[in-house]
Amino acid sequence: MNKVIDYHKKKLPFISIIISVYNEEKTLRQCLDSLLGLEYPSYEVIMVNDASKDNTLAILQEYQQKNKAAKEKIKIVTYSINKGVPGARNEGMKAAKGEMFVFTDADATFPKEWPLKLIEPFLENPKIGATGGRDIAPPNQPLIERCIDYTLTSFIGTGGLRGAKVRLAKYAVTGCNFAVRREVVQKVGMHNEKIRWRGEEKEWCQRIREAGYDIIFAPESYILHYRRISLRSFWTQTYKSGKARFDILKVAPKSFAFIHIVPSLFILYLLITAIFSFVFPIAVILFSAAAIIYLKVLVLQSILGTFKTKNIASLLIVPITTVTMHFAYGLGFIRKFLHD
Question: What is the SS3 string spanning 205-223?
């Protein structure tokens, strides 16, 4: 709390927290309650209702009229045709008044100091164009959700791309927790709405870097973000991420890193060596070697995941969530490559 008071003297910038919401009635109330309780002196919440078909809009309106503080803080943008997250966030930026745009999701809750930790790097360095924080699963969630969370944030799972200390590519913000200066948006433009389903912030990061700005990971800024609660929905989410990565590389080729195509190359390697194993004995050896190495990596991943989740059942679940993510992403990328 003392640090917040100290930063008051530095005149913290007015920020606009922008959230695209689509059929979020299950988590929206707790999200709004959390946002209204933030310890940040000057902010607004722009809720963009992206043509929801459930009670999302009614809940937003209920909260906007709930009390004077909520009415002052919450602004609703709504329309009847779904634009997708990039389009919705662009509409939110058009309505925002803040010096900084902060982006997150409606299926999350927030520590009171969350936006301050995300904004702090901007106060010290004018070259910083964007910052990103962590997203972690809320405590006491089902084990499958905690295993998915571990898989998403582990080095073996994603190569450290979600903000780990060691990364196999340049840091790019995670879409559920990041901030961008208004002046940067005015210089590089808004989200590319052609990248409709996932990963639009990755392409944005590349444009921000090319404009001469730095992008900083702020590990102390974290949100509690609900994960997919079934392997099927996790597969679908990750498959879309693989497809989106191809779209990102197509419009921003300089953002390419070898790690982006490793899952796809691994799948193709297994497929080719498996097919040729019927003809060439050496192919059997090559296939078996790769499979054995991958199995050993999965064993290591399951052990580390078990320590993280503190549940022995993770020994069986983490390998499944890891394989799901690697193969869904890789197949999504291959599918998009062949389609385009």
Answer: HHHHHHCCCEEEEEEEEEE
Rg, C-alpha atoms of the chain: 21
Q: E strands along 11-104, which residues?
A: 15-21, 43-50, 74-79, 100-104
In this predicted structure, the answer to whether residue 5 has a pLDDT above a threshold of 50 is no
The CATH T-level fold of domain 2-229 is Spore Coat Polysaccharide Biosynthesis Protein SpsA; Chain A (3.90.550)
Element (H, E) at 64: helix 56-64
Strands 100-104 and 214-225: unpaired
- Rounded-to-integer distance, Cα 196 and Cα 146, Å: 28
Tens digit of pLDDT for each residue in 146-188? 999 899 889 999 887 776 667 777 888 888 899 999 999 999 9
Question: In whole angstroms, what is the distance from residue 215 CA to residue 208 CA?
Answer: 8
CA end-to-end distance (rounded Å), the chain: 52
Q: What pTM was computed for the model?
A: 0.86
